[in-house]
Design a protein that fits this description.
573 residues, Aminopeptidase, 4 domains, nine-stranded mixed beta sheet, three-stranded antiparallel beta sheet, alpha+beta
Length: 573
């Protein structure tokens, strides 16, 4: 390494960090020591250094290199402060691909529930970001609830000094703490409070501590897996072979440990300006861990009954590699079909992504009994340029997924023939966008192949909306009331049979069941199985609900028909 130029050293680091199992990687400790003595003068170069270090932290070749990486990462607060004090432009540390570096802030219109969580856990680190002030009309509609006589100003004047009103009302309390307390005191449900708060579009700035930042955030691990050999590539991964293996066992975590895992998942997402439903509303009493090998741990979350979706079962997972959060998974299941959303964070996508994905799917197969894995068009690039840029379509295709639309399957085969004929051929971005226009699926049960090809869960919702418009003049409450009465009669239920949360589940399911023309002619066993499915949806977790759905073949066929547009309009109530 003849040069001491930091950029040249970073180039060398980028090169060496990819050379797992090769003698050149033995140069990493000396290179890291040299970089540790150099001033990195731009935020862009600092971001680049940070991401290379985090990648090697997740995929360390040896203990010496890992120790030096951790030393370097602990210096980032000082490096950022030095750059800021010198008047440097730190905006290169803002994009979600690199945000959350120690010593920096993130600012986003976080949801009410995440702001409440941040305030509980990190109150001293958050504040209203007035550089991204909310719109006046939204404050005018909401803040008079808390600020007496504000109407006198907000309803008729221009350029209302809302922050001055707030400053005089809050006294010595921090602005955000006072405002949250006022929302908490409203005689409204949590859902209604969230709707009011979120309508403000209030940006919240979070400056995490070094340990809470992406730079220092780690999950405790029993031991480090060192990569002394080349990484597992996509070509080495077979989904079919993986599904023939027994997945690792799951451990149930205590409620306290579950809370800690949710805190890590929420923080990881917030630092990237993201929120995932299963992390925001996860059930701390239903958290499981699976160690799938090579230093990878999945932390699985379910939802409490009051936060569950009306029909699909929901599960999410945070993915850690040697304690470093590297991605997440979201699964939405109905019968044996699961819509799988998988996101490996940008800086780690060279790191055995296909192998980790395959292992994750196998864990879900074992837990949930799912056998049809569906990919939404967004995941492969529909209105998602990141998916186009990363070639997501071919990632899934080469793992064995197929397009569900016949025209896109034909186009796929044409592209595959071109790739075989020419080693230099690459699918154009225009064609990738065409390929991303439809869903993809991987099926384990050949006898059910194609059953879900035309299914979309929103078609069930669309069918309900059409019925509401045609039969009930667009009045949802009247439709709900009549659907509940009709379905309860058809299933032989009284009001006392399904109390509490189960009653709410029945109300939602009635909207679908009312569309099944022959429901009343089902056998008594089939009807009782539906009742058990409804009870299970309100149970301690959604696994039992999903397993019961998978066994009810007649209900499954009706759901597929409605969700595929194959069951037409039925007679009114």
């Amino acid at each position: 390494m003849p040069t001491a130029d930091p950029i040249s050293l970073l180039d060398r680091l980028d090169d060496l960090r990819r050379r797992f199992g090769l003698p050149e990687q033995k140069q990493l400790p000396a290179l890291l020591r040299r970089l540790g003595r150099r001033h990195i003068a731009t935020a862009a170069a600092l971001a680049r250094y940070h991401e290379s270090l985090l990648f090697l932290c997740a995929y360390p070749p040896d203990a010496t290199t890992l120790r030096l990486i951790e030393i370097e990462l602990r210096e980032f607060t000082r490096r950022v402060a030095r750059l800021r004090d010198a008047g440097g432009d730190l905006s290169a540390l803002d994009p979600p691909e690199v945000s959350g570096v120690a010593g920096t802030s993130v600012s986003s219109p976080f949801s009410f529930d995440i702001v409440r969580w941040l305030h509980r856990r990190h109150a001293s680190q958050i504040a209203i970001d007035w550089d991204e002030a909310p719109q006046d009309d939204r404050m005018a509609a909401t803040w008079p609830r808390f600020l007496p006589l504000l109407e006198e100003d907000a309803f008729v004047e221009a350029n209302v000094p809302y922050r001055s009103w707030l400053r005089r009302a809050r006294g010595r309390q921090p602005e955000l703490a006072w405002l949250l307390a006022r929302f908490e005191g409203l005689a409204l449900s949590d859902k209604e409070k969230a709707e009011l708060f979120d309508a403000l579009n209030l940006f919240i700035s979070w400056t995490p501590s070094p340990k809470t930042s992406r730079t220092g955030m780690r999950l405790a691990v029993p031991g480090v897996f060192y990569h002394r050999k080349p990484l597992i590539t996509r070509r080495m991964v077979s989904l079919s072979d993986e599904f023939n293996r027994e997945p690792p066992p799951l451990r149930n975590l205590s409620r306290a440990a579950g809370e800690r895992m949710l805190d890590l998942a929420r923080a990881t997402s917030a630092l990237r300006y993201r929120e995932l439903y299963g992390f925001t509303y996860g059930d701390p009493a239903r958290v499981q861990s699976a160690r799938i090998g090579r230093g990878v741990e999945l932390i699985m979350f379910g939802l409490p009954p009051e936060r569950r979706l009306p029909l699909r079962a929901y599960h999410a997972a945070m993915i850690y590699k040697n304690g470093v959060p590297v991605g997440y998974f979201e699964g939405l299941s109905l019968c044996e079909r699961i819509e799988s959303g998988f996101n490996f964070y940008y800086g780690f996508r060279e790191g055995e992504t296909a192998w980790i994905y395959a292992r994750t799917l196998n864990v879900l197969r074992k837990i949930l009994g799912v056998t049809a894995f569906s990919i939404d068009p967004y995941q492969i690039g529909h209105e998602n340029e990141e998916g186009i840029e990363s070639g997501a379509f071919w990632f899934y295709r080469k793992l064995g997924f197929r397009p569900t639309r016949p025209d896109l399957l034909r186009l796929t085969r044409i592209e595959e023939e071109r790739l075989v004929r020419s080693q230099t051929y690459r699918t154009s971005r225009t064609r990738l966008r065409r390929l991303a226009a439809g869903s993809m699926i991987f099926e384990l049960n050949d006898r059910a192949a194609g059953d879900w090809d035309r299914f979309e869960v929103r078609h069930l919702g669309f069918a309900v909306q059409r019925r509401m418009a045609e039969r009930f003049r667009g009045e949802p409450e009247r439709m709900r009331e009549k659907a509940l009465r009709k379905v309860s009669r058809g299933l032989g239920l009284s009001e006392a049979d399904l109390p509490g949360r189960a009653a709410a589940v029945l109300e939602n399911w009635s909207l679908i069941l009312q569309l099944i023309p022959d429901l009343e002619s089902w056998s008594e066993a089939e009807k009782q199985a539906v009742v058990k499915i409804i009870r299970a949806k309100a149970g301690v977790d959604e696994t039992g609900y999903l397993r019961r759905l998978q066994r009810h073949q007649r209900l499954r066929a009706s759901l597929i028909g409605l969700g595929s547009g194959q069951i037409g309009s039925v007679q009114g109530t």
